[in-house]
Amino acid sequence: MTGRGRPSRTTVYRRLDQALAELNQRLGGLPTPHEAREIWDDIWHQEAHHSTALEGNTLVLREVRTLLDQGRAVGAKPLREYNEVRGYADAAQWVYGQALEPDIWHNGDLITLNEVRRIHHAAMTPVWDVAPHHDATEREGPGSFREHDIQPFAEGMTPPSWPLVPAQMEQWVADVRTLGKQIESAADLDRPLPEELARIHAEFERIHPFIDGNGRTGRLALNLILVRLGHPPIIIMKRQRTTYLSALRRADIGDYGALGELIARAMEENLNRFILPNLAGPARLVPLAALVDREFTLDALRQAAQRGRLNAVHGPDGVWRSTRKSVEAYRAAKHRRPAQGHPEEVP
């Protein structure tokens, strides 16, 4: 543990390795979207919300759920923002579908250049239809590499000149292929897997291959690599934006530890959604992510815990934990309240 009680990076990596071994050896691998629909659906809603919010989208999670599940745009946000979420969700749905075909990749081909373009096209077309980038030419639309230079970022990162983008993206895909071959052959990696993933993600963002939508496309590409490795997709939460950007800046100078730790924690949280419901007894404390079901989202359980309506504990690692038994008690109390004549808004 660190001085503040937060688990060390080494501990986080070790826990992740144990969770991955548990998933593969005890549970037979990652359940497909058909086998664990409620969990995958909640991850889908959460990712579409948080990943677009990182880029400034203002839709709240309730609005995202209504848009994706019912096709209704509630609230009074610009059409561009609804289309940002819809496009991202469409691209993420295709990415998640690759988990149905865990053996689709071979020879280390975890992702291809055409698939990167496909992700960008799916994510950006809906928003481009109503608010195209003001500097884009006809050849720089969704799915096409930029033909503009991008000014250096304030943090110091300088994307390559646009004529270099195709070659550098080919090299990026080759680097991912090399990593895939190493994993496939169980070879020793140069650094822990989360830091290899951090290196790949940071390099994509450095290249900045598109005129717009690079952050969203980079996170979706990372999740495609993860699901093809048999791991769940990750979610970088909007509250982590400052930490995420700081970790990317450190990765730009070759320090992948902070970004690797962020990725590892996100991997572990979503792994717990799949693993712990299968292993935990009704009275065992588990992270709230493992207790999500069709009625209660992660945000709803977290709000109930914070308000004292759900019996839960807030660990020194910042994670809320409860039990299936406590959730069932909360569910029963929630459904009793209207019958007693005391209607109350419940998260």
Question: What does this molecule look like?
Answer:
It is globular, with a radius of gyration of 21 Å. A three-stranded antiparallel β-sheet has the order 1-3-2. It contains twelve helices and three strands, in the order ααααααααααβαββα. It is an all-alpha fold and 347 residues long. 55% of the residues lie in helices and 2% in strands. β2 and β3 form a beta hairpin. α7 packs across α10. It holds the Pfam family Fic. It comes from Sphaerimonospora cavernae. This is Fic family protein.
Short description:
With 347 residues, the chain is mainly α. Helix content is 55%, strand content 2%.
Discrete helix count: 12
Class computed from helices, strands and strand pairing = mainly alpha
Low-confidence stretches: 339-347
Report the portion of residues in β strands: under 5%
Largest sheet report: 3 strands, antiparallel
Number of strands: 3
Q: Residue-averaged pLDDT, rounded?
A: 88
How much helicity do the residues have?
55-70%
Q: What string, H for helix and E for strand, traces the elements in order?
A: HHHHHHHHHHEHEEH
- Outline type: globular
| Strand order across the largest sheet | 1-3-2
Through-space gap between termini: 33 Å
Radius of gyration: 21 Å
Protein name: Fic family protein
Topology:
Elements: H1 9-26, H2 37-53, H3 61-70, H4 79-97, H5 113-130, H6 165-184, H7 193-207, H8 214-228, H9 241-252, H10 257-279, E1 286-287, H11 298-306, E2 313-314, E3 320-322, H12 324-339
Antiparallel strand pairs: 1-3, 2-3
Helix pairs in contact: 1-10, 2-3, 2-4, 4-5, 4-8, 5-8, 6-7, 7-8, 7-10, 9-10
Organism: Sphaerimonospora cavernae
Domain Fido: 111-268
Pfam family, one: Fic
